Amino acid sequence: MATAQSPKRVHQVAVLLYSGADILDFAGPIEMLSHFTYNNSVTDREIAFKLHLVARTPTVLTGGCMTITADGLISETIKRISDFDILVVPGGMPSLLQGFASENSPEYQFVKSFVDLPQKGTEERLLLSVCTGALLVAATGAFGGLMATTHHKFYDLLTEIDQSIDLVNCIDSDGTMRYVDGGLKKDGLRVVSAGGVSCGMDAALFVGELKVGREAAEVVAKMAEYNWKRV
Fold first, then answer.
1. What is the mean pLDDT of residues 68-78?
2. Do 107 and 96 touch, CB atoms closer than 8 A?
3. Where is the DJ-1/PfpI domain (predicted)?
4. Residue 42 has pLDDT above 90, yes or no
């Protein structure tokens, strides 16, 4: 059962962006997490998450049509990677994500640096992959023997990257499985992976439940008029 941690703490969330990222992969989780508060107020909000958009360049063209301005560059933000409690890795074309890993790109280095952080006190860190973002996460070894999922068209590709992954087929679950909680690793990192595209919203609500509580997550889902498929 998910339980909230550290009451009233503002969790710092890095959202990795890149040219070609799928819009809903990152916009969905941002929409959900940005509405979490500790007091369920729309006016005097006690926010639970502060989101930071991080990219290789100052602007990125996402989805082939939407230009996003980053809050920080990877080259600078990676120097303070330990400031972040949560990292969101959205998907895009599989060849793009594979390229990031094979080229030892700034995107790969950013994810790997977060994965390799030592445990900080008793507070767990959390890595959320959405859709094919799991391919980049898998290349860092973060899934290592854990349950994980990705877009249904790329299950084989995910396990090719890391054969130790315990693959969860969300498509065969009659739509009830939208994300997978891989669990908490020994270094204090929890790894959550979402299925394709819209699944990221369900996973983000689960992340919010972990950090703020189920009631808060249900309030956000209702506010968004979204039918949360909670696992």
1. 99
2. no
3. 12-159
4. no
Q: Contact at 8 Å (CB) between 59 and 69?
A: yes
What tokens appear for 153 in the block? 């068209």
- The Cβ-side half-sphere exposure at 27, using a 13 Å CA radius, reads 10
- What phi, psi does 55 have (nearest 5°)? -150, 165
Structure tokens at 82: 């330990």
Asked if the structure places residue 211 within a domain, the reply is yes
CA distance 111 to 127: 9
Using CA atoms, how far apart are residues 144 and 120, in angstroms rounded to an integer?
21
pLDDT tens digits along 5-21: 555 899 999 999 999 99
Is a pLDDT exceeding 80 seen at residue 175?
A: no
pTM strictly above 0.85: yes
Number of domains in the chain: 1
The answer to whether residue 131 is catalytic is yes
| Residue 1: per-residue pLDDT | 44
In a domain, 90, yes or no: yes
* Residue type present at position 169: N
Q: How many CA atoms lie within 13 A of 49 on its CB side?
A: 31
Judge whether 204 and 193 are in contact, CB under 8 Å: no
Identify the active-site residue in 65, 131, 170, 199: 131
CATH number assigned to the domain comprising residue 180: 3.40.50.880
